[in-house]
Write a structure and sequence with these properties.
Helices cover about 60% and strands about 5% of the residues. By secondary structure, it is mostly helical. The protein has a single domain, classed as TorD-like (Orthogonal Bundle), CATH 1.10.3480.10. Helix 1 runs antiparallel to helix 3, helix 1 runs antiparallel to helix 6 and helix 1 packs antiparallel against helix 8. It is globular and about 50 Å long. The protein starts with a strand and ends with a helix.
Length: about 230
């Protein structure tokens, strides 16, 4: 059984999503989105410890055991002597602060890559969230166009598909996944990956962004085939 809980986004009502659904190809996709969202939210002690042990590819592959398409998880680790502070510093350099005064070379915000207008992009993303009764979490504050937040939204949509008993509702949530991938993640995550590569990241974050971009592309192709 796959146990689901929502993080980074909140429902507008009091309904709980802490329920179980049967393991399936849908929850395998959900599991990868969940792990990727966790990875890019911030490199806390758990993220660091798993990176130090080289566990992240296994985390992805275990959650994706029933994945309905082929995907390579690769190898990822950090040097044994790298401290958590150094690990966090590389994340900050790449994605949040940068090395100088011009900000990060590869910001984790879709609005930096889509339409050339971040406000417009954030408004569009928020409309997606609001349509499904969601808003960004006050307890885990991130901008709505943050990579981790958008991956969390895909996790929500795949959960709703898996938990729906009605074929009509399942098809509706698949269409929503297709639309969000097409209008958001598929448009900007490849550009983010190019920016990260240009920043000459350490091997772990190079692996992380390549896996995120690769999975978004593979999943978009898979979902597109389902919605026809």
């Amino acid at each position: 059984m796959f146990v689901y809980s929502l993080a980074g986004l909140e429902l507008d009502n009091d309904a709980s999503l802490d329920v179980e659904v049967e393991d399936s190809p849908i929850t395998a996709r959900l599991g990868v989105y969940q792990q990727l969202a966790r990875l890019f939210a911030y490199p806390d002690a758990d993220v660091y410890a798993a990176a130090l042990k080289g566990e992240w590819p296994d985390r992805l592959s275990q959650d994706a055991a029933l994945l309905p398409f082929e995907f390579e998880y690769g190898d990822a680790w950090i040097p044994e002597g790298m401290s958590q502070a150094e690990f966090e510093a590389e994340y900050l350099r790449l994605f949040e602060v940068g090395a100088g005064t011009d900000g990060p070379g590869a910001p984790l915000y879709g609005g930096a890559y889509v339409n050339g207008d971040r406000i417009r992009t954030m408004e569009e993303v928020v409309r997606f969230y609001e349509y499904f009764g969601l808003h960004t979490s006050a307890e885990d504050p991130r901008p709505p166009d943050h990579l981790a937040t958008e991956l969390e939204f895909m996790k929500f949509l795949t959960f709703k598909e898996a938990a729906s008993a009605s074929p009509r509702l399942q098809a509706s949530f698949r269409r929503a996944q297709h639309d969000f991938l097409d209008r958001q993640l598929s448009r900007w995550v490849p550009k983010l990956a190019e920016k990260v590569t240009a920043e000459k990241p350490d091997k772990f974050w190079d692996w992380a962004i390549s896996r995120a971009a690769g999975f978004v592309a593979a999943d978009a192709q898979y979902v597109s085939g389902l919605v026809g």
